[in-house]
Automatic annotation (TrEMBL):
Name this polypeptide is given: Na+/H+ antiporter subunit E
Organism: Vreelandella malpeensis
Membrane association type: Multi-pass membrane protein
Main localization category: membrane
Location in or out of the cell: Cell membrane
PANTHER family found in the cross-reference section: NA(+)/H(+) ANTIPORTER SUBUNIT E1, NA(+)_H(+) ANTIPORTER SUBUNIT E1
Entry's family note: Belongs to the CPA3 antiporters (TC 2.A.63) subunit E family.
Record's keyword terms, sorted: Cell membrane, Membrane, Transmembrane, Transmembrane helix
Length: 165
């Protein structure tokens, strides 16, 4: 017997794919909904076996807070970077930082690195082969340790709590 879990391994991803398809198509015509629905089912089925981990979200409300925090940080960082770039008298202090990771799962490390790269002014440059630290480039660093603590408190600890890893 085919169970819903077998033909729809990631229902949230399927809904997200359908939503993104309809946004890209800019149409809610029945044909677009049907095509988006087919893609939303087929893409996870084809790619699911290649995924590394099967982590489950343990605290969805913490995830919602995390997403809102990241969105707010992206907006604020955009204004800060614009201010830094527009001010020719400000001497920037770009710096590479070796960030020691508390996370161990590759999926959550990827989420952290992506979050850091999404925030203007910082980019994840490299993950060490042992997976114990992340090399981050920041546009303007006054205090390296303060930046490490800010990333740990704002991004890494919530990810650790969301996935309980």
């Amino acid at each position: 017997m085919i169970t819903p879990r077998r033909w729809l391994p990631t229902p949230v991803l399927s809904l997200l794919l359908l939503f993104v398809w309809l946004l890209m198509a800019r149409s809610y015509a029945p044909g677009q909904i049907l095509l988006g629905g087919v893609l939303a089912i087929v893409i996870p089925l084809v790619t699911f076996r290649f995924w590394d981990t099967k982590l489950r979200i343990k605290k969805p409300w913490v995830l919602v807070r995390f997403i809102l925090r990241v969105l707010k940080d992206i907006v604020v960082a955009n204004f800060e970077v614009a201010r830094l770039v527009a001010n020719p008298w400000k001497r920037l202090k770009p710096h590479f930082i070796e960030y020691p990771l508390m996370l161990e799962e590759r999926f959550t490390i990827t989420l952290l690195a992506s979050t850091i790269s999404l925030t203007p002014g910082t980019v994840s440059a490299n993950l060490r082969l042992d997976g114990k630290s992340l090399l981050i480039h920041a546009l303007d660093v006054e205090d390296e340790q303060a930046l490490i603590e800010e990333i740990r408190e704002r991004y890494e600890r919530p990810l650790k709590e969301i996935y309980e890893c």
